[in-house]
């Protein structure tokens, strides 16, 4: 995804969600891929395993604290599953706006390792984004945050089923 995202008309729902998501103060936008099509339930379970490993790393196993994050499935479809994009090479993925401690880029390898260890179906960014860090975007300005929030919410025109609400946290 390039920084030159075409601005489209947003629904009232997308605008309200976007305004609310600003409260999480995300400092990174991460794209998690899968090697093959997975069900909505499998995507939730896999993302949950990954999120738990991150929480344990940053706050300890018994901590009740959570990282501020908003994960959104790309191309969610009804029927508890979601399919690939227009071409197979683009793959299936989850976008996650997250607030990481300190410098977000310092945690890229940890995020990659916890993701690929969460489930054999997880795609490795080194394979699916070869010679590129496009899977991990650091957010440094409000304008970039707005662009990436709007991009993540493109699937939420009518409802919020593509948001993995079970894992949404503003960092409390």
Question: Could you characterize what this model shows?
Answer:
It comes from Luteibacter rhizovicinus. This protein is of the alpha+beta class and 172 residues long. It has one domain (26-167): Alpha-Beta Plaits. It has five helices and six strands. The protein has a four-stranded antiparallel β-sheet with strand order 2-5-1-6, covered by helices on one side. A two-stranded antiparallel ribbon has the order 3-4. Strand 3 and strand 4 form a beta hairpin. Helix 2 packs across helix 3. The longest helix has 20 residues, at 40-59. It is globular.
Concise description?
The chain has one domain: Alpha-Beta Plaits (2-Layer Sandwich), CATH 3.30.70. Helices cover 31% and strands 16% of the residues. The chain contains five helices and six strands; from the N terminus they run H-E-H-E-E-E-E-H-H-E-H.
């Amino acid at each position: 995804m390039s920084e030159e995202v075409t601005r489209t008309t947003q629904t009232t729902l997308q605008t309200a969600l976007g305004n609310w998501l600003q409260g999480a103060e995300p400092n990174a936008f991460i794209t998690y891929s899968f090697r093959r099509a997975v069900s909505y339930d499998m995507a939730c379970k896999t993302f949950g395993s990954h999120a738990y490993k991150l929480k344990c790393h940053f706050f300890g196993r018994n901590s009740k604290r959570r990282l501020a994050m908003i994960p959104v499935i790309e191309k969610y479809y009804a029927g508890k599953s979601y399919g690939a994009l227009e071409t197979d090479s683009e793959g299936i993925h989850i976008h996650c706006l997250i607030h990481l401690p300190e410098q977000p880029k310092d945690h890229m390898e940890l995020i990659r390792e916890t993701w690929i260890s969460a489930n054999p179906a997880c795609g490795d960014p080194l394979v699916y984004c070869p010679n590129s860090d496009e899977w991990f975007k650091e957010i440094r300005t409000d304008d970039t945050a707005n662009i990436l929030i709007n991009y993540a919410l493109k699937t939420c025109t009518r409802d919020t089923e593509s948001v993995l609400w079970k894992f949404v946290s503003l960092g409390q």
